[in-house]
C-alpha cells in the first residue's frame, strides 16, 4: 500500500476541493452554505493568499480528504493566526488504513509551525464528536475551551443545499 501523504493544494485542485468542501458542509454545516462564498474562500487558499489547503489525492483529480485553513487576524489584534475551517475525509476513505484525518490535522499543525503563527482548530459537530476530540487531543494536546451550539445542530437536513 502506498504511503498516504498530504500535499499543498494548487489551483488545479479547485473542483476537487469544492467537492470536499460541499460534502463537509452537508455533514457539518450549522447554517445553509453559500457556494459562491465557499468558492471564494477555497480559491483564496489555493492561491495561498488568504489561507492554505492541504489535500490527499492527485493534482486535479478526486480527493480523499482536505483541510482548509484561513489566515487572518483575531478580532482584538493585528497579529496573524491560522484558523481551521474544515478537516474532512470522504466517507469512502474513512475506514481505510492510513490515518487520513490525523495526517490532515498534522498538516495543519506543521503549517502553523512553519509560519510561526498560532493555529485555532476545533470540533464543531454533533456527530461523532467524542472520536474527533480524541484525535485532536492526540495531535494537539489538551483543548483550550469548548463550543456550545444553541438552537441548531450540525449537518444539513435532507433536501437543503447551498445557494448558488
Using brief descriptors, characterize the structure shown:
Aminopeptidase, five-stranded mixed sheet, 164 residues, single chain, alpha+beta, disordered C terminus, 5 strands
Structural class by helix and strand composition: alpha+beta
CATH architecture grouping:
3-Layer(aba) Sandwich
Quaternary structure of the protein: single chain
The amount of helix comes to 25-40%
Biggest sheet features:
5 strands, mixed
Chain-wise SSE layout:
Layout lengths: L6 E2 L5 H15 L6 H12 L4 E6 L8 E9 L6 E10 L10 H16 L3 E2 L8 H12 L24
Parallel strand pairs: 4-5
Antiparallel strand pairs: 1-2, 2-3, 3-4
Helix pairs in contact: 1-2, 3-4
Explain what you see.
The structure is a single chain. This protein has one domain (7-140): Gcn5-related N-acetyltransferase (GNAT) (Aminopeptidase). The protein has four helices and five strands, in the order βααβββαβα. α1 crosses α2 and α3 packs across α4 (129-140). Helices cover 34% and strands 18% of the residues. The model is unreliable at 157-164 (pLDDT under 50). It is globular and about 35 Å long. The chain is α+β, with helices and mostly antiparallel strands and 164 residues long.
Amino acid at each position: 500500500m502506498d504511503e498516504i501523504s498530504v500535499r499543498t493544494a494548487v489551483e488545479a485542485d479547485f473542483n476537487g476541493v469544492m467537492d470536499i468542501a460541499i460534502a463537509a458542509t452537508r455533514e457539518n454545516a450549522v447554517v445553509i452554505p453559500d457556494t459562491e462564498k465557499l468558492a471564494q474562500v477555497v480559491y483564496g487558499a489555493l492561491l495561498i493568499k488568504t489561507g492554505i489547503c492541504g489535500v490527499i489525492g492527485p493534482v486535479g483529480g478526486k480527493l480523499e480528504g482536505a483541510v482548509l485553513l484561513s489566515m487572518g487576524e483575531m478580532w482584538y489584534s493585528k497579529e496573524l493566526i491560522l484558523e481551521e475551517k474544515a478537516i474532512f475525509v470522504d466517507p469512502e476513505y474513512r475506514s481505510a488504513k492510513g490515518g487520513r484525518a490525523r495526517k490532515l490535522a498534522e498538516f495543519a499543525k506543521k503549517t502553523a509551525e512553519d509560519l510561526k503563527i498560532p493555529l485555532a482548530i476545533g470540533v464543531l459537530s454533533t456527530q461523532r464528536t467524542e472520536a474527533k476530540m480524541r484525535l485532536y487531543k492526540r495531535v494537539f494536546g489538551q483543548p483550550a475551551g469548548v463550543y456550545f451550539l444553541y438552537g441548531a445542530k450540525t449537518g444539513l437536513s435532507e433536501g437543503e443545499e447551498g445557494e448558488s
